[in-house]
C-alpha cells in the first residue's frame, strides 16, 4: 500500500500545481473584461485564457515577471511582426518555446497583439 502511495504522490502534486496555474475552466460568474482594441475582436479567441495557460508562468500576469529570462513585455518596443515570429518559432536563444504546433496562426497573431497592450499604460 505504501509503495502505491509513494508512486501516486508525485502525480497528485503535479496535478495540483497544474490546476493552481490556471489550467481550469473559467467560471461564468466572472464579468467579461473589456476588449482591448489591439486584440482581434472579430475572432472568438480568448487571449486572456491562452495567456493564463501558456504564458503566465514565465511572463507573469502583467508581462513583467521575467522568469527564466522571459522578456519584460511592459518595456518591449518590438513590432507585431517580430512578436508573431517569436511566438511562432520561439526565441533565437531558445529561452522561449515555439508555439507553431500548439496555437493556430490566428491565435498567435491575437497573442502578439495582446502582448503589445502591456506597455500601453506606461
Strand content: under 5%
The mean pLDDT is 78
Q: From the coordinates shown, what is the CATH architecture of the domain at 42-122?
A: Orthogonal Bundle
- CATH fold label of the domain at 42-122: Cytochrome Bc1 Complex, Chain D, domain 2
Number of strands: 0
Question: How large, in whole angstroms, is the Cα Rg?
Answer: 17 Å
Mind describing the biggest β-sheet?
none
Overall morphology: elongated
The structural class is mainly alpha
Helix content: 40-55%
Q: For the terminal residues, how far apart are their CA atoms? A: 57 Å
CATH class of the domain at 42-122: Mainly Alpha
| DSSP helical segment count | 4
Secondary-structure element pattern, one letter each:
HHHH
**Poorly predicted sequence stretches spanning 5 or more consecutive residues:** 19-42
Q: CATH superfamily assignment of the domain at 42-122?
A: Cytochrome c-like domain
Q: What does this molecule look like?
A:
The chain has a domain of 81 residues: Orthogonal Bundle (Cytochrome Bc1 Complex, Chain D, domain 2), CATH 1.10.760.10. With 122 residues, the chain is an all-alpha fold. The longest helix has 22 residues. About 20% of the residues have low confidence. The radius of gyration is 17 Å and the shape is elongated. The relative contact order is 0.15. It has 4 helices and no strands. Helix 3 crosses helix 4.
